[in-house]
Amino acid sequence: MVCRHCIRAVETVLDNLGITDAEVMLGSVTIPDEEVSKVGIEKIDRALEDDGFERIVDRNAMIVENIKKTIIRHVRIERECPLNLSACLEKHLDITYDTASRIFSAQEGRTIEKYFIAQKIELVKELMGYNQMSISEIADMTGYSSVSHLSRQFKDVTGMTPSQYLRRGLNDRQPITQV
To answer: Do 102 and 87 belong to one domain?
Structure first.
């Protein structure tokens, strides 16, 4: 789960199963043992899979989910965070950046930095879609040192400049997992 919509979708799945005491947060779900026993873990897993979710039990997969959750929070919520990405990840994950990077790359087939940039570009697309700020304001708000730096990364990720993207329309936004 990487967004509030995912949280709501998981809550709905659990409600449909009659599980009412679950605690659903970004990246994790805690279900009391008696609720799991009543419904059955296989039934919960099947219902979650039917909605495109899966229970993560592998330690490295859990670390990757926590890395993603931390990056999303860093990009979207803690934009004013004085820590750079590696320090932020180390603080929130309690593992070294090197370890996090090695695990993430092995599990995801891309680097933490590429995922971070993709998240920033998705935020840029969202802000451009509101049509309330200039590209310069968006660059500043999302932590880019200049419009040209933003434009270069935007083109690397999307294959087009921000201006081309705006002219093309906003219906082609992709979920971050496909970037």
So the answer is: yes
